[in-house]
Amino acid sequence: MSDKKKDLPYLLCLLVMPALGLLYTLLNTDTREAVILSTTLDEWIPFVPVFIVPYIFWYAFILGYLFYFWYKDVHIFMKTMSIIVIGELICFVIYFFFQTTVPRPELTGDGMFIHLVGMIYSHDQPYNAFPSIHVLTTFSIILANINIKNKHSFHSVFVPIMGSLIIVSTLFVKQHYVLDMVGSIFLTVFIYGIIFELYGVSTKKSNQAYLKE
Predict the structure, then answer these.
(1) Cβ-Cβ contacts under 8 Å for 180 (sequence gap 6 or more)
(2) C-alpha–C-alpha distance, residues 140 and 155, integer Å
(3) Which of 46, 97, 99, 105 would disulfide-bridge 34, Cβ 3.0–4.6 Å?
(4) How far, in Å, CA of 91 to CA of 21, rounded?
(5) Residue-wise DSSP of 86-127
């Protein structure tokens, strides 16, 4: 861990997360005539309260793997942070000009999962839906994890499985629609292609030229 001391300042980039959270909260209103993007497929998807568990686990998943990326490869950490920050800022612009909403089901029953859903509903207004930040950040971790070298096989299996559960949980707890999920995936892939592929190619070329010299 002593070798990582020089990389400690990079962790300060995580301080941007609360700022992004504040912007999200400020935009999380219906003052811009929110639109409903429901499809037939969404009507077929049932409300399944138990999916609130992976939905809430998202918080630990994102923060935990950002720390893990920093520990394993600070360059991948910074690229992942770039995807998240750029992606969320794009989402905020969309929320401002094209606000959407997801009508929530009436909560009945007295189980633990119902109470957890109620807690999330009470702290997060049903707006800022398209694209889904839950999906954007989770898919960013899934894609970035592919680039981590010499990782334990646990992470190769856990990240895509848990990430997929988190993504579909947004549909089963009725926080998002299918179009919210698909829009986030396309947005994430687009930014990932620029940050990891185009930038990565230019970096590799520069390194090759340096070695030849």
Answers:
(1) 37, 100, 102, 129, 130, 131, 132, 135, 170
(2) 15
(3) 99
(4) 12
(5) HHHHHHHHHHHHS-B--PPPPP-S--HHHHHHHHHHHHS-S-
| pLDDT surpassing 60 at residue 203 | no
For residue 125, which phi and psi values (nearest 5 degrees)? -65, 155
CA distance 68 to 21: 21
Residue burial 94-116, b: 16+ Cβ < 10 Å; e: rest: bbeeebbbbeeeeeeeeeeeeeb
CA atoms within 13 A on the CB side of 104: 18
Residue 24: both structure tokens together: 């999200």
Between CA 212 and CA 39 the distance in angstroms is 56
